[in-house]
Every structure is written in C-alpha cells, then in structure tokens.
Amino acid sequence: MAMRVIRFASLTPTPWKNGGGTTTEIAVSPDGAGLENFDWRVSIAVVAGDGPFSLFPGIDRALTLIEGDGLAMAIEGRPPLTLTTASDPLPFPGDVPVSASLIGGPIRDLNVMSRRGRIRHHVARHDLRAGPAALPSGGTRLVVSLGSGPMAVGEAALTMAFGDVIEMAGENPVSLQGSHPVLIISLTASGPGLR
C-alpha cells in the first residue's frame, strides 16, 4: 500500500478573485494539473460571503460542510436545502447554476471534484469514536481528519490535526481506527481502458 500524509498547516490558501473566500488545494490528479485539466481535485474552502458558485462543465462535485453554522444552498432544478456539519456530503453536477448564503457567519467546506466519464468519486462521513472504518479497496482513497489525535491506518500509527489528509493507493482493503470524525473519499476510474 502506497501512502502519504498531507499536513493542512503546510498548504497555502489562494484568495478568490471576488474576495468572498479562499481555497486550499489538498490534492489533485494528475500532479500539477490546473482547473482546466484535472481528473480529480480535493480542496478546502473558507466561504466568507454569499454568492454564486463557479461553473465547471463536465465535472461532478461533492460539498461537505466541516466548520460553521450552515450554508443555504440553491441548486437549479432542486428544492432549497441547508448544509450543516451534520449533513451528508452533497453531490451535484458542476455545470448547473448554484448559489449559497451563509447562516451565522463564515464556514469551511471540503470540495471534491472529478471529471465525468473518467473518474467517479464517493464521499462519506465516519465517526471513528463509534468504531473502526474499513476503507474500500482499489483506486485512490483519501481520509480527511476532522479532529486531532492518534489514528491507525492498517499497521501505521499517525498523529493527525484538523484538515490533515492521508492519501492511499492500493488494491487491498485497509482498517482505519482513531478517536475523532473523518471524511473518507474514494476515487475510481470510470472511463474505458482506465484502472
């Protein structure tokens, strides 16, 4: 199993052009890809103001609130909804109009994007205080720490801080144990000839 730990504190946020927040890119494939040519991208954003989302044609997205009081979401073709830190990750296509309004102040969210027809993604919350998680086999798996403390990934013992990420690739399932909540992201190829 290939594994690397990405420390959130070592990453540099990028301000939005409209001044409404910042985005910190955590991981992208292929390495060094930009917004026009990534296969998948994982980032954490601080949203400080209301407004529309950028459009990403051909991209599927999942948004998970990880800090703050809430985000009122308006996605074209769907009833209005409110995203909180207790909500399941919200999947939606990147090529439909979306706008959001803050509830009670700035929030922090985790954003997963994958190129439709090439990569499928799945994001799930898991509270390790309730018991270990079994990470799925195959593809790329990322574990985003939503707390601080020890975590065991298979036989590897780690100390994690909020926002730190473990990225893994391999065919075998892996057991995850710890003392705080995490987000588990699975990324698998969906196009012909991809593995």
From TrEMBL:
InterPro entries: RmlC-like_jellyroll (IPR014710), RmlC_Cupin_sf (IPR011051), Uncharacterised_HutD/Ves (IPR010282)
Alphabetical list of CDD domains matching this protein: cupin_HutD_N
Domain of life: Bacteria
One Pfam family recorded for the sequence: HutD
Family matches, as SUPFAM superfamilies: RmlC-like cupins (SSF51182)
Protein name: Environmental stress-induced protein Ves
Organism: Labrys monachus
